[in-house]
Amino acid sequence: MQPSFILIILGMTCLLLFAYPYFIYPVILKTLPILPVRRGAFAGRASLQFCVHNEEAALPQKLASLKRLKTTMPDLEILVFDDSSTDASAQILSQEDGLLTLVRGVDRCGKAAGMKRLAAMAQGDIIVFTDANVIFADDAIQKLLTYYADGNVGGVCGTLLYQDESPSITSEISTSYWSLDERARSLETATGNVMGADGSIFSIRRHLYPDFPDTVLDDLTVSMSVIFQGRRLIKADDVIAYERSVAVHDEEFRRKIRIGARAYHTHSYLRPQLRQMQRIDRFKYASRKQMRWFGGLFLGLAGLCFVGAIAGYSWILAAGALVVAGAAAIVLQRLGPALMAKPIAAATLIFATLYGVILGMTGRTFVTWAPAKSR
Questions:
Q1: pTM score, two decimals?
Q2: Which of the two ends of the chain, N or C, has the fewest CB atoms closer than 10 A to its terminal CB?
């Protein structure tokens, strides 16, 4: 068999591995047995909590949403941690004594530390977690609580919808990626457990809240602890929240690096418990989490294999193809139509995630955060 042909086969295999978590994994999930969830009235109380750092631009809309939630659920407890904001966030929140309880940090400590402080204060049977820039549908918490009528359910994730007032290539990529992720979460739920929550909207039974270091992703750690403790973690398609996606490529690029590093750091912390999960959950976790983290590696290896196949015929032709492909990528990203610019921009974000994971593998992580200005 010709070496060039072998390289082409290897390149196609790498492309399949790259596509697997997005397109092949969901098809496999559809073949698994369905595990229904029983819904009904839930008499317990809910506590809603989130952290803030320099979110004064998002707070007016957030507070209006909280007031609507409080109108329909008067016993809803709302807890907010201000992580040493340098803008007017703390002042704005401090004026809402009748609506929420504000805890102010002395020094920057990060979201995980802030969430732990709030969780220790929470009085509700169910703790609902969110972000400062996320807006809940008015009936979101009421619908969320109905899933806790099922005693096997320990955690419920909501459904996040992106709203783009000024669409950009970056925001459209984020929306498309998130749609694929939400679809996978729904399919995972139908077959048992969803593999981790996003911090925008999720909840757990308060007594299941774990202890963990401040350096990990609190949303992934807290939500996966539900599974580790033998309860179901599910996604509710009718529990809706809204968020504006990041519109500037550089901001999203840095965000992907930060998330990738923290995700792998969290994975390392959770590894002993991950290994003890049921086989189906280990399969799900590897398929949706780990395979995506290394998507940039599969994509890069595919490119190298194809270049190597061309080089088998002519190194000059291979070098010329690389130069032309690189020049075309730069020109199309800056001047070309969105049809060509989107794949290029998406590829850079995929490699940003891989870079973050590599940082995580070397022991690097991120504790604090800054809100994206383009949201």
A1: 0.90
A2: N
